[in-house]
Every structure is written in C-alpha cells, then in structure tokens.
Amino acid sequence: MATTFASVRPKGAPAGAPSFPRTHFYFWSRRSPAHAVAVAYALVQQSLTRPPVEALERAFASGRGLTPADARFVADDAFGLLARNLELDDALFLQQSLGAEGVEVDVVPESDLPRLPDSQLFTRVECREGTLAFFDALDRSTEVACEAVAVIAAGYDQRELKLELFLANEPQRLSTTLELLELDRMRQYADLAEPDNSGEQFRNLVRHLVSNCPRARLNRAAENLVKDGLAGDVTEAITYPRPTAYTEELSWLLWRVRASSQTV
Hints:
Layout: E1 3-4, E2 41-45, H1 53-59, H2 71-76, E3 81-86, H3 88-100, E4 105-109, E5 119-121, E6 124-127, E7 131-135, E8 141-145, E9 149-156, E10 161-167, E11 173-177, H4 198-212, E12 217-218, H5 220-225, E13 232-233, H6 243-262
Helix pairs in contact: 1-3
C-alpha cells in the first residue's frame, strides 16, 4: 500500500494550557531580574524516549525550577531538550530528581548547544558511488561524501514537509521540502503502481539516502519513514507538534554527534 500524507493544520494548545503560546511554555524559569545576565542551563535528554508524566510529576514535586503541573507539557514537548533557561542550582537539582525516576539528562549551558547552520537549498539529488550530488534551482551542484553525512532529518513541522542532511566535519545543512523537490527529474523513486504519488516518492528518496549514508543519525520522522511495513496515511508518524519541536530535535542530534566525536 502506498504512502500518503494527509492535510495537517497546526495544533492548538490543549485544554487548560497557559494563555501564552505553548511554543514558549518551558522556556521560563524562576530567574529574577538580578540574574538576567547569568548563564542559562538546559536539561538535555540522553535519549529521545518520551519520559512518563508520572515520573516527571514526582521529579518536579519540590516545585524547584519546574512544578508537577508542568509535567504533562514537558513530556509532550520532550524532543531532546527537556527544559531550558534554568539556573545552575535548579538544573542540577532537577537532574538528580529526574535520575532517581529513571529519566537521565545532562546539564548543559545553553550557549554550548549546537546552533543550526543556515540552509543550503536543493531541488534534486543524485546518489553516486560513495557520494551524493545536490542540485539547486539553477542546476548548480554540491557533492559530498556519503560517509560525511552525520544527520538525516525529515518530517512535517506544521509548516512544510522537510528533508535535511547535516555534515559531520563542517557546519553544512542541505535542505529541501516536498514542494521544492523536482520529483519529475527523479523518477527512479516513483512507485510503479502510483507514479504520481509524491508522498511515496518522497519516502523512497529518504530511504535511499539513509541506505547510502550508514553513519547518519536519524530523527524520529526519518526513522519512521524507513520502517518496513509502514503504509497508508503516515502523516501522524512524521508530524511534529510545532516547528521548534523539529528544530530542538535537530539540536539534540547534532549535540549527540558532537559528543560522540569527542569521545573517539
């Protein structure tokens, strides 16, 4: 059964949520104006496993930095960065409390988190022997080694269906969207049964890139797209609840890439 993508609208805040945008929900802390210039710290997950709400409620029971009422929102927004804009003492306290509940996090200065490079757009890609050639709208090419690709990310971020690749040794971000891709020039990814199904072509392209880049880490949506047996409407499996959830997960993946390279 071929892959399809449903029309998705941005999700509203859940019932009982604060009146301010959920995008900024956990970026607050109890920092006073006197600490405005202090270093802000983030709690970085050691895995992308969604923490249980009950475990977070117990970890936040003291009300220090976060409260039990925050637990559900933090769990729903767990895309690598569990909380941000914390003072060091609060961050270390929460790290210990979370660890006691089996939720392992690192305390990291926010200034140390990777910044996403500017996007270099491409409209088509060719897989060659050991390399990938990316072409822009003017048909100018950029060639990179498959082994240099550190992260492959895909997914619908509530704005567009994205596909991005990040290189390991230099801050390069190769980006496209379903709308930008010249699928008519990449017919090798078409489904013979449904040659005009752009969703299936997109998925086949992602699977081919992943198979050619064995060292690349994948975001959740890319992992879902390459799973065997995934068919039908896969929209839910590749959708992020907000644009910053998608970018936070990218920051987390790049953080893990950098951390693993430093231990080699």
